[in-house]
TrEMBL record:
Protein name as catalogued: 4-hydroxybenzoate decarboxylase
Pfam families per the UniProt record, alphabetical: EcdD_BsdD_detox
Top-level lineage group: Bacteria
Disordered, as annotated region: 71-92
Length: 92
């Protein structure tokens, strides 16, 4: 519960309904928006995007994923983190 403390309005992943949502970025002006990412299907969204992209109950059903979908999805290469001055910390 340490990384999701800033947002309680998007508790579930819109795509797969997973509950472990990671906080990725904040807006340059604090409090305007956040970028969040699902810990399971890696769907990423910004909180200021339309409800169809940010809310499970408004997300298009044809794009929703189930755990079975994720388990059978082909492997894709991981995308390294973006290089930004704010994120350039010696993590790990
Ligand atoms: Zn997800």
């Amino acid at each position: 519960m340490s990384e999701t403390e800033m947002s309680d309005t998007n508790a579930l992943c819109p795509r797969c309904a997973h509950g472990a949502i990671e906080h990725i970025f904040d807006s340059p002006v604090p409090g305007v928006w956040e970028v969040l990412q699902c810990g399971r299907c890696l769907y990423m969204w910004r909180t200021s995007e339309p409800a169809r992209r940010t809310r499970r109950d408004a997300y298009p059903a044809e794009f929703m994923m189930t755990p079975e979908d994720i388990g059978t999805a082909p492997e894709v290469p991981a995308v390294p983190p973006l290089r930004t001055s704010a994120a350039r910390t010696a993590a790990g």
